[in-house]
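To: structure subgroup
Subject: Chain for Friday's discussion

All,

I'm putting the inputs and outputs inline so they're searchable in the archive.
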Amino acid sequence: MSDTAGVAEAEQLVAEATGEGAESGDGPRFTLELNQDQKDIREWVHGFAEGVVRPAAEEWDEREETPWPVIQEAAKIGLYGFEALGQFWADETGLTLPIANEELFWGDAGIGMAIMGTSLAVAAIFGQGTPEQMAEWIPQCFGTADDPKVASFCSSEPDAGSDVSAIRTTAKYDEATDEWILNGQKAWATNGGIADIHVVIASVDRELRSRGHAAFVIPPGTKGCEQGAKVKKHGLRASHTADVHLDDCRIPGACLLGGKEKLDERLARVREGKRSKSQAAMQTFEASRPTVGAQALGIARAAYEYSLGYAKERQQFGRAIIENQAIAFALADMKLEIDAARLLVWRAAWMGRSGQKFENAEGSMSKLKAGEVAVWATERAIQILGGNGYTREFPVERMHRDSKIYTIFEGTSEIQRLVISRAISGVHIQ
């Protein structure tokens, strides 16, 4: 950033989000009672979702294009930008970020992902970068209110989805020029190719598999970083997804998140047989899972609320269909499962933000439960609407398509169960 005031503001937000300068303590207690700031943010985001996102949802789903006008509207009111994300992160309870995501995705998941997709790249920079890197790169991920930008986190590859250790993209250091040279192909990257900032996971030592990975920032306009094929998706169609090709992509040495000294120290420990403290891709996923679960919750709640209203109005055999036990019980189960999933999401978000250790993979539990509830609840909503629910004239069809990805990306349901089973058993289950 060239604007020193902007850098100072970014550094302040980073300090607030990390708790830098605060007195040490046991952290906030867990409570289900939201404070006034959390309620105000929930109302603010809900208002935007209801007034701006929902009316545009069908159009951008059909167009399968990034909804830049909606992103710009979000930027103008301060919802899209590092200030808003910093405010969400600064909440010491950890609940504001999932609350905001639930409300936004209640409006529409495709547009919600177009707005929030940048945050995964930001999470990688925030989790692994130095304070100087955070201050430089995080504001650039968003651009300005007048000229918003997006960022992309690039981890998956054609042959490396759930198995992050199979990543083939390489990063080699050129000491003569103090540059890293990246080569490889990334797949299924949200905002891939259209982003100003790409955060790429690459291997610096293939023999070490996932322990030899590192995260790199690719600045805007870097040669050798190009968009590949755009993915035509089942759901989240307003969110751009594409391959990213890296062909002798040269970036400054300072673009290695965390710095080379830290990387060399970590690799040395691994080569000596010592445990690595973190893995570049997994660290980002662990931090983001409760938030992803909250997004799935927003979809599920939207489907539940729509089908509830429909059931009260729809007449069959001379009475509203909600008077039939089969419909009423289905709605009761939807409400039950959504609220149960929210409790898991909030618990995991609080644990992650307050520094509690995930003893039983609570982050994975929250994402698994919320994702599967979203698919199940949207299917129930279609069933309640009957033939109408199967048509694009009613939004539950789109909600069902949008929900499915939440059992696949950022760790499939099977991978989440693997993580949980290993945590509770202490056994390396295959």
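Points worth raising on Friday:
The chain is about 50% helix and 15% strand.
Residues 1-11, 16-25 have pLDDT under 50 and may be disordered.

D.
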